[in-house]
Every structure is written in C-alpha cells, then in structure tokens.
C-alpha cells in the first residue's frame, strides 16, 4: 500500500514537473517577443543602426515564428512531441547565445531569424505535451490554464524586464538570459518526458509547407518595399509574382493531396476567416504598439530603458489580473462578440490616447494609452477573437484551426511592423507620431469588421445548416 502511494506521488510530482517544463518553454518563447523592444534604442546606438533597420530585428522573429508554426505542429505529430520540443529548445538556446554574442547587425539579424524557427517548434510540441500528460477533463483544463498563464506572463514581463536588463547588464543579456533557463528545460525534458512512440502519422506535405512559407515571406517583403515604390518596383513585382505562383501551387496541393497540410473545408468557414482576419489586425496593432512604445517613451519622454521598464510594469500586471479574474466573470455575462468589441474599442481609445500623448507631450495620456492597449484591450481581444474564430470549427479540426489563428496573429505582426515603419523617421534618435495613426486605422478596421452582421459574413449554406 505504501509502495503504491509512493509511486502515485512520484507520478504526480513528475507530471507537475513536466507541466512546468512545457510551460517554461512557452514562457521563453513569449518573453522573447517583447523583451527586445525597450533594448532596441541601445542596440541602435551600439551597432549604428537606423529605425528602419532595427524594426527588422523584431519583425523577422515574429514572421518566421508565424510562418513555421503549422509545419512545427505537423512535425510534432510525425517525429514525436519530445523530439521536436527538445530540438526546438536546442535551436532556441544556440541562437539566443549567438544573438547575445553578435557584434554586427547582420549576425544579430540571422540569429534572430533562427530564434523564430526554434520558437515555432517549441510552441506546438509544448502544447501537445500538456494535452498528452493531462487527459482528464478538469485536470487538462487546469493544466492548459497554467500553461496559458506562463505565455501571458512571458509576454507581459518581457517589455518591462527588457528595459531593466538592457540598462544594468547590457542589451546582449536580453538574449543570453534564455541560455541557462533553456539548458535546465532541455535536461529535465530529456530525463522526464516519455520517449516518443513510433508514429503512425505520415510525413507532412513538405512542398505545401514550403509554398506556404514562401507565400507569407513574399507578401511581407513586398510590403516592406512599398516604402520606396519607385526605387523598388521591379522587386515588388517579383515578390508579388512569387506570391501568386506559390499561392496557386499551395491551393493545388491542398486540393489534391489525400492528407493535405490544411483542410480546405475548414479554411472555407466564414467564422474562421473572420477570426483569422481579426487576428492579423490584432498582431499588426499590438506588435506595432510594443515596437513604437519603446521609442516613444525613451525618445519623446526621455526615460531611460530601466525607467521605461518600471513605468510599463503596471500595464502588464493589469493585463494578468484582468485575464485571471475579470475575463471569467465577463465570459459568463456577455457574449464573445461583445467582449471582442470592448477590446477593439479599448485598443482604439488607447491609440488615440497615444496620439494625444505625442501632441501634448503628456505622460498621463501615455500611461492611459498603455493601460488601454496592453492592460485591457489585448486581453479582451485575444479572448473574444478566439471564440469567434472557433465557434463553427468541428471538434476534430480544433488543433489545426488553433495553429491557423496563432499563425494569423504572427503574420499580422510581421506585415504590420514594416507598414508602421514606413511612417517613422529613417534617422536614429528621431521619432514622430504618424505611425500611431496607422495603429488607429487598424483598430478602427477591427471595430468595423466586428460590426458586420452575420448575414453578410456567413454563406447561405452555413445559415441553412444552423
């Protein structure tokens, strides 16, 4: 009897340890999206960059992450969750080390790109690990809640911690901080995760995955070149041609393969299309906000990176508190569309407040804008948009549909950053308020899309099915 209790306790302890390890993997991935922002002015100064160059350090990570997420999920099913998780963590560790030791912009950009690839392997495999080890309904819900809270905490903490680390330790440590954490994660994952069983899944459709990545990258690169259309017209035309060719090839593969990379029937759902469009807009808005806020608070209001980190910490705490205590109450009382509209309206109010902050040089409007966007709007939008995207999706397609919404968010960030950067000064240390107006337009577009009645968004067949 005592022996049985001992093994039960050890099994429970191991499961908790596994949950922490999977959650720490997603924590580091989420942390790295935000942590670089307040360090960017210091990176610009040390490496002699312009605003136009520094934004690519953020956009390339977000874009590669989004482009490879679906393939990462498919590889996790084929190669095994433990294998993909450990290899993703190793790639992230090595590229974090390389980024921290980089002495040139191009080396840093290369390692930042490969970090995005590592993150795209960690995220779906970590989620698969949680679902594999926690099978009972209530147990799984609690585990996923803890897993999600680590991601939210990583995103929330990154912006504040990045400024503090960059000020006291140097910008290299916003990358090097990942190394000891991931080393512990890799060792414990290797020791405690069950070895992967032989997979019965077929190899993912690699040509379709390559076409998907090429289409996303060509769209982003064409968008970046629009800042100087006359000088880059041939390159823009070339990337747009590549976008058309790869998109047509991808569509053909999805339609003809017995086990396609994505199910076209799911992609045809109007509710999922609407949700993915909203996530693209959200990714563009919030990633743009994180990037712009780091320059606004340091260059317009002349706070140091450390002071900026401390100032922005309350926004992050507010976001965590709303997600933990406010959303459960709202979800029981009002529908998801109303939550989404409240979030989008908060985003719009926040961007307008930032415009006022630049115009009046007012710290009050700056803090109000940050609270409305990072503290309230992001939390409400992410929840509301998720429900809208998934409400019509069949149960057996929830996994790939969830990957699609996450991909849409990060691709939005990858496209939104170059669009925002078009309106920034190309000189380091100079900044203006025009990019915030772009964020205002994105927020207004989200509200407009949410306001469309269902009769204009759902097909006749879907309405009849309802």
Please give a handful of descriptors for the protein shown.
3 domains, 83% helix, transmembrane transporter activity, transmembrane, Growth Hormone, Chain: A, membrane, 466 residues, mainly alpha, 0% strand, disordered N terminus
What would you say this structure looks like, in words?
The chain folds into 3 domains: 10-193, Growth Hormone, Chain: A (Up-down Bundle); 205-260; 268-466, MFS general substrate transporter like domains (Growth Hormone, Chain: A), CATH 1.20.1250. α1 packs antiparallel against α5 and α1 runs antiparallel to α8. The termini are far apart. The protein is built from 19 helices and no strands. Helix content is 83%, strand content 0%. It is mainly α and 466 residues long.
Tally of domains? 3
List unreliable stretches of 5+ residues. 2-12, 458-466
Helix content: over 70%
How many helix segments?
19
